[in-house]
Design goal:
Elements (H helix, E strand, L loop, with lengths): L5 E3 L2 E5 L6 E5 L10 H7 L4 E5 L13 H15 L4 E6 L1 H12 L4 E7 L19 H9 L10 H11 L2 H16 L13 E6 L7 H10 L3 E6 L6 H4 L1 H23 L1
Length: about 260
Amino acid sequence: MNVPVKEENGFRYIESGTEGETLLLLHGLFGALSNFESIFQRFSKGYNVVIPILPIYEMPIFEVSVMGLVDFVTRFVQFKGYDKVHLVGNSLGGHIALLYALAHPEHVGSITLTGSSGLFESAFGTAFPKRGDYEYIKRKTSDTFYDPAVATKELVDEVFGIVNDRNKAIRVIATAKSAVRHNLGDKLHKIKAPALLIWGLQDAVTPPFVAEKFKELIADSRLHLLDKCGHAPMMEKPEAFNAILEDFLKEVISEHKQVEV
């Protein structure tokens, strides 16, 4: 993504700086800025699109947890002075978005989840067998998508590098274990913000039944299932994803303005 990364007060992020409501994008455990390139391009003309780089690999080991990342997002929102944000979270990013919304409902305009953890997830697990096996990592990365071609060599190389860096691998495992411990099944009824669920029908990490359960437990929620799509719909079906998200945001913002009047 050809957008300069800003570094301020210990935060690294990109921001469109556009006048308008803030769209805060939260990536997953192996995520990167490039995961949200299509969203940034589509929405940065009408929204202030912001993507903080979550410090999964840099946090002190004793702070590594899902709640540690929620605290990071809380500090970031405070630092930037955002009043309300529209959260979009993929995988672990969705989990963080939900926990943030539970802790700070006054700062959340809406929540969009895609392939979110928080109820059930099946990924690398809590250990990394065959750490040095490139073909194994390539296969596991490809399994994230319906179309294996989406798992480019650049993406596989990035995941392989993370898995084979001992310090990063330890933090990935610790974060994954923390995510499993922070199951949200008994808390989702407290979510009051409108929620959009966009899921791949062929998501093998958080299968469609997970999306159905999120819809059941979050009162004001709507679900869209995309065919021939895996765990990262915003990457695999960007046009469909963006169209659904755009309609949802327009609806939510319109309703909010009517309430204010």
